[in-house]
Task: structure prediction
Amino acid sequence: MNPVNYLYLAALLFTIGATGVLIRRNAIVVFMCIELMLNACNLAFVTFSRMHGNLDGQIIAFFTMVVAAAEVVVGLAIIVSLFRSRHSASVDDASLMKL
Amino acid sequence: MSAQLAAYSTSNGEAFQFWVLGTVAVIGALCTVFMKKAVHSALCLAGTMIVLAIFYLANGAYFLGIVQIVVYTGAIMMLFLFVVMLVGVTAADSLKETIKGQRWLALLSGLGFGVLLIAGIGHASLTEFTGLTQANAKGNVEGLAALIFTKYVFAFEITGALLITAAVGAMVLTHRERTEHAPTQRELAERRVREGKHVPPLPAPGVYARHNAVDVQGLLPDGTPSELTVSRTLRERGQIRDVSAAALNDLKALEQRAEERLERAAIEPPHLKRTEEASK
Amino acid sequence: MENLIALLIAAPLLGAAVLLVGGRRLDAVGQWVGTLLSTVSFVLGLVLFGDLLGRSAEDRTLTQHLFSWIPVEGFQADVGFRLDQLSMTFVLLITGVGSLIHLYSVGYMEHDERRRRFFGYLNLFLAAMLLLVLADNYLLLYVGWEGVGLASYLLIGFWQHKPSAATAAKKAFLVNRVGDMGLSIAIMLMFTTFGTFAFGPLLGAEGQQGIAGDASEGKLTAIALMLLLAACGKSAQVPLQSWLGDAMEGPTPVSALIHAATMVTAGVYLIVRSAAIFNGAPDAQLVVTVVGAVTLLFGAIVGCAKDDIKKALAGSTMSQIGYMVLAAGLGPIGYVFAIMHLVTHGFFKAGLFLGAGSVMHGMNDEVDMRKYGGLRKYMPVTFVTFGLGYLAIIGFPGLSGFFSKDKIIEAAFAKGGAEGWILGGCALLGAAITAYYMTRVMLMTFFGEERWKNQPTRSPEAPSAEPAAAHHGEHAEPHPHESPKVMTIPMIVLAFGSVFAGGFFSIGDRFLHWLEPVTGHSEGDSPLSVAAVTGATMVCLVIGVGIAYAQYGRRPVPVVAPRGSLLTRAARRDLLQDDFNHVVLVRGGEHLTRSLVYVDHTLVDGVVNGTAASVGGLSGRLRRLQNGFARSYAVSMFGGAAVLVAATLLMRAV
Result:
């Protein structure tokens, strides 16, 4: 098997995640789809690392994880405060630039 | 020749693992997108992430594979589940689309993007696979550490700052300043009396021999269920067992038997009709 | 000495400022403050005049540069003054006659509550008029030009409670705007043609030739015609003459000072001052003479028909300024005589107006001459001064008008050729008509039976216009009486001027020698001898007086005006000037504006509204894209990313 298949898998997962972002309305699921996209990227980076024979790709993936953690923290906080004010976690409900 | 071939391809074991687990990962991803309940989505995503962790390990990224399991499935997904619990179940969970054309556009652009991306990868001449044997010679973690604390040290520091900022930001976002003092129990009791709202404790749920039955509504003397007896959350989730029909049927059968024995004309109690309609 | 020039203007300007913003505390002394500051200006003028006389003829141009007003690259306008013989003549006339009329107004306006403001306006007028004649460039002259227009507007409409006065003020202002457009266009043309509008480089100074003659004749003609338009507006010449008659709604001292002696002669000043330009444009000069000739006949005919004493005098003013413009249009032959007639006219016409004011003062502000008659017994001083002014204006031998008007008629003939004959003939005819209408005024006012007896001079529904007369009692029979000394003294002084000024100027050609360095002079070749022209003028004079005596001296004057011939009726309506303006200008303007409004509503608004509607419609559709749903935006982003990937792949493939 050619390791390029990992890249195909990453592309497929990324596309699924992106489509999920577009069609789901629950903000939490949307977030999960974003995480899926990030993970797909990480897989690609790890594969690249193996392809080039150095560890820089893994470092990038590591940083991606850290940033994803930070993003999740802030994003979930936003979801919680949105839910508090609207009693809904739907991204469509926040369609006006006011409460 | 064989060494070159080794660089191109992997062992059969890894190929098998890839095809099996890759299928699982794709299914998990699709389930994440299409599952109706957020909890199920989260569980499917966790599964996909574990598969990805295995792939990391197979690709020689041992440290990342472990971190993936510990940080992602262990911490981040748990965070998601907490938030799902906090936010609860809402009607927005239905998969019915509300924006006109959104689904088709999304599928179209997703399909187009995916095809283009895969075509791009296929088009690229990715023939050189060096492998990580040399890079991981002193150990994967040591290699990463050497890079992080030399070449990427500034990025690393900045990432630390970012994490702290994110933590502070999350606290600021979710923090609510209490503008009035919390009412004491005495004040709450007085308010209840003043407002004339249900002063005594709420009635207990219907107790049923088989379990503790917090999801069973208590029956009023005429056999109809009381809404006050179960938690509102359970009712909204539709997790209530309605036993009133069984009880009423028992009652009805009893009365019928009594009438047959006493040879009396059946007098239809008026409330029975109502409850039957209600139970429909 | 040069430093005094600015003070000439500063004194009345100070007076205007003090009187107009000083408030009621100055009500009691306002008239004396105004008169004093005007007199100060006159005294300064005399001092400067003495200084000029002490210099040689070529050295009599004083300049004072006060400050740089509009210093823009290439466009340099300074506040600077130029006092030469021409300006000096005007300064003395303006401040001298002005001071006398200030004095007269002290008596005339004695009972007006708003006297302080009146004197403020008078001082403002003096300052603006002095600025006009002292400016050393056309732009500053324009400031003075507008300033006198403003003062004229304020003073004509001084009794603004009378609708007629308010309307007259508006009319004067509007008609003057037309002329002012001419002046501003002339200044713009000068700047584009010569690159400057200062007198020094343009018209020449201290014996040097100016650059005005360098331009092509066409450009000079254009500038000259625009200047003529300005002069027509300010000096009430045909076709912008219509405002002067209505301007008589103002108080009589205003009529005397502004609308007889000084402001209306500003047009003549402008033409004479711009002699260098007019000399290079013979066609424009011809137009000037035609305008002058037409106006002198026009004004004279109107003057014959008016029963209102002030309007008759206004017609006379128009006619006399026509003489001046005619003379100014003759070129170097006539410039000096135009100014000379201007000065003598300033004396006798101011005297006549003051006399008319005095008569009105004594007659409960009655202005209809048909209700006068036989007043010589009751107002001897007014009679004598008015009579001397009368003799002067008709050109009685030996008096001022004789010398100045005779010279203009001679100069008109001296133009030579057919033009000379026609212009001279017009001037002679004008002299005859002048004699006629002035005799008519004189006879109807001071001679004949006393038609004012046994009838109230005012009908009850027409209350006294001039508040000064309020104390006389409105319905009573008038009791003609002589005016107080403060009013008669200026009249007497002006009568002296009317009698002696012309002779003083003419004997030994004093005035000619005084002005010649500025305006230049040349003797034309007259086809008639001086004696012949003088003889012809005398004959015209006698004919005019004779006809008037036959009509008004021998027969009783009817109190109600007879219907009269077609010409009489037309002349009573100012020779249909207002009807003409109404039909041609007002109607035409209305039609023009209506069609413009139509075009604006359909075409312009259509384009504008159509653009707005299409933008609105388009954005209404585009707005639907902005539905606020984050997922819609995400689709756009994702689609965009797909397009980018496609583009990248395509570029790599190519």
Observations:
- Chain A touches chain B through 73 residues (CB under 8 Å).
- Residues 1-86 of chain A form a domain with the Helix Hairpins fold (CATH 1.10.287.3510).
- Residues 16 and 78 of chain A are 24 Å apart (CA to CA).
- The mean pLDDT of chain A is 88.
